[in-house]
Amino acid sequence: MDKYKVVFTPSGKRGEFSRNSNLLDIARSLGVDIDSVCGGRGICGRCQVEPSEGDFPKFKINARNKNLSSWSDTETEYQNKKGNIKDGRRLACCSMLKGDMVIDVPPDSQVHKQVIRKPVTKIDIEIKPITQVYQLNISNIDKSKNVIQNIIKLLSNEHSLNIKSFSDNINFDFNNTSDEIGVVVRNDRLIDILDNPKSDLYGFAVDLGSTTISCNLVRLKDGKVMASVGAMNPQIRFGEDLMSRVSYAMMNKGGDKEMTKVVRDTLSSLFSESIRDGLANMNETQAQQLIVETVIVGNPVMHHLFLGLSPLGLGFSPFDLEEENAVNKQVSDFGDLLNLNPNGFVYVLPCIAGHVGADAAAVALAVRPDKGEKRHLIVDVGTNAEIIFGNKDKLFACSSPTGPALEGAQIVCGQRAAPGAIERVRIDKKTLEPRFAVIGTELWSDEEEFNTSVKKIGVTGICGSGIIEVLAQMYLAGIISSDGIIDGDMASKTDRIIPNGRVFDYILHRPVNELDVEVRITQGDVRAIQLAKGALWAGCKIMEDYYGDKCEKISLAGAFGSHIDIKYALVLGLIPDCNMNEVSSIGNSAGSGARIALLNKDSRNEIENLVSKIEKIETALESSFQGYFVDAMAIPNNSDPYINLQQVVELPPKKLKVSSGGSSKSRTSRQNRRRRS
Asked: In this structure, which CATH number among 3.30.420, 2.60.120, 2.60.40, 3.40.720 belongs to the domain 368-404+529-646?
């Protein structure tokens, strides 16, 4: 019987299934989070999914609408009665598999909403907004003609402002207002007029990540964050990592425009959600008029797709940017998509290099390594790691293709951070028994009430921080060898190590409750993390080579860096060895940099000047990359003994295995012979 591939986004869960398999049943068998309360009868409408059409080389899938069964009578009946199946969606319970498919599960169809882990980091910002409101009394001007020009004169006389331009579409009824008005000025441009001269102005600081989007609504006069919201990046359906999205644009005509539309649509929704949360005392139209400035940061692919630029040049060396400088555009240039004051402005920070984007520039603005003495390594880990290294003397930047494995994708039981995901792991070195913590409960799995506490959410998979901890714990317990092989000989000590063909798996969790799934760590999972960490470590070492000395301080930026345990990141060799007291998480620094640029106009010139001074390195062109990459495949590393780490963690004796059953002795002998030759 024919088998077809199905990939669900944003979870990344996938499998092969027979023709005419029901999509909802497939999702449930894979542990995909889809809501359904009617038992698959097509009457609740909660299992709506969005089939994606196009070529997906990352998944080796050519998805077409014909690869799902035709619109069913049940769906037609439901739509006629309820009318709420959105365009392009299907009911999973009524859809049968006819070929390979990529299926997106939108947020409103998920039972357990994704946890967007990009909290606001508290920072000191000198408030100096680029856009301000000025109070004017217009009782003495002629309101029948040349009103704007007269207001410009008043601004010059009363506030010493030299206004050089004004927005063309200012709609204000001067004959139906009080004499006191508020005039909104951005630098030397008059952009709007307000009835209430004491109105506060607001802006958005947006971190446009490849996996998640975070959005902060900020009051411009004092920097108060009024609301923080987030969402999964809808582009995940086109590819989990950035190069997959570039490939999608290459292989599908209009694919880049499709990705631009979905990300702008999501931003518009987030803006509206922020307004409802943070400015609940106003109606949405009133609030929109007061949102006059938006700052956006993101990696180069996200940067280009948001701006409507082609990302194709980023798909191959020399990774040319369509636009590398900072961008200032009026909101109206984006059409009606952004739900903001059309006379307001969007400022996008400059990109540093082909794959070191405006988000890395924002991190540099927040951290300012150029002002420090210590050699500072800053790593923002995502599907593409962006690395900055140096100090006040010199700065370098590069990127490394870590892929999505560190975020839970491409891992057999991996998932994004959501309730039910394992995020902390400890393994007893003697018994090899694990205990773990999941998102959604404060209890650990060995505590008495744990199973009761997770009954409604289940133990559904493992997220990025959990992956790092479980592999580090498996290594420390001797389950994984130095070269990353799950040791089948350890099966004599525990029933959690089981054969899977010629390799072995480690069972982290066996189902207890109805919603639980079996969570296992496979040899393929270990290899995926090895590949990711190898690329990251190699990039870091190349930066040290260019500087001419080792790092003295390491900062992990981004949501991933905020939630991994630094000790276990070092145990795996994810980052170079360093004094652990000098290794820290700096939270969502890209978001912090966006807020700085939003609230302090001088910072925009500062970061533009700083970016021009950073030396950009293309790791893909470096001859040393491959050697460093191979060394970093070992745990923690084949060439670096991690002396600093050994002062705080007792590493196990070096043990080498081969997956084909060869002995460690024979492997060591082969290695020695290769070295001698």
From this structure: 3.30.420
pLDDT digits (tens, 9 = 90+) for 399-430: 988 877 777 767 888 887 778 999 999 999 99
Predicted pLDDT at 670: 38
d(CA 319, CA 302): 14
pLDDT in tens, 631-648: 999 999 999 999 999 999
Close Cβ partners of 238 (under 8 Å, ≥ 6 residues apart): 52, 54, 56, 244, 245, 248, 255, 258, 259
Please tell me the distance from the alpha carbon of residue 501 to that of residue 609, in angstroms, as a whole number.
56
Q: Cβ neighbours of residue 567 under 8 Å, at least 6 residues apart?
A: 472, 580, 648, 649
CB under 8 Å to 577, separation ≥6 — which residues? 570, 636, 637, 640, 641, 642, 643, 644, 645
Indicate whether 396 pLDDT > 80: yes
Non-local (6+) Cβ contacts of 335 within 8 A are none
CATH class of 3-109: alpha beta
520, 508 contact by CB (below 8 A)? yes
Q: Are 82 and 74 in contact (CB under 8 A)?
A: no
Q: What is the 3-state secondary structure (H, E, C) of 490-535?
A: HHHCCCCEEEECCEEEEEEECCCCCCCCCEEECHHHHHHHHHHHHH
Q: What are phi and psi of 30, to 5 degrees?
A: -90, -5
Instruction: Write down the pTM of the prediction.
Output: 0.82
Give Cβ neighbours of residue 257 (< 8 Å, ≥ 6 apart).
308
**Number of helices (H) and strands (E), helices first, in the chain?**
18, 29
Provide the β-strand partners of residue 48.
91
Residue 90 CA to residue 69 CA, distance in Å, equals 10
Query: Rounded to an integer, what distance in angstroms lies between the CA atom of residue 568 and that of residue 576?
Result: 12
Q: How far apart are CA 273 and CA 517, in angstroms?
A: 33
